[in-house]
Amino acid sequence: TYAPKLILLDISDINCIQDIAKEILNCYGCVDILINNASMKVKGAVQSISLQLDKKIMDANYFGPITLTKAILPNMISRRTGQIVLINSIQGKIGIPFRAAYAASKHAAVGFFDCLRAEMEEFDISVSTVNPTFICSYHRQPAPGNWEESIWK
To answer: Of 2, 28, 62, 102, which residue is the catalytic one?
Structure first.
């Protein structure tokens, strides 16, 4: 039995994920189950969402989970056991208006984890994606002109 350890991670900050994974592996030796359950979304017309915000959404919803998974994966492969879960969204399967960046990032994540599932079969590592329908998320009303405030977390 291990004492719980709180590790703060901004999943959209790709540069710190490798160090966080090392910290976890140094503390516990392995990860049996990795659940990727962080997300960021924004609502708005394609032409009104900046490329900068599109990239931030992609970092949080696609590059973050795959970077963390890739950091933990070698340990699972060497032990020939583990389970990786992606909590995604129904919007990873279908797109709806005013959610283009979010849906694109979720589609990309589904594609990556579908491929990973096939590749990990030989190592007895289970890869699952969960695509729930719409959920109630925390949201703050944005100040005019402040796109960061329009992000759902």
So the answer is: 102
Q: In what helix (H) or strand (E) does residue 16 lie, and over which residues does it extend? A: helix 14-28
| CATH node for 32-133 | 3.40.50.720
Domain positions in the chain are 32-133
* Model pLDDT for residues 64-115, shown as the tens digit of each residue: 999 999 999 999 999 999 999 999 988 778 888 999 998 999 999 999 999 9
Digit-coded pLDDT (tens) for 15-57 = 999 999 999 999 999 999 999 998 888 889 999 999 999 999 9
With beta carbons less than 8 A apart as the criterion, state whether 37 and 87 touch: yes
In 10 A of CB 103, how many CB atoms?
Answer: 22
CB atoms within 10 A of CB 77: 16
102 among known catalytic residues: yes
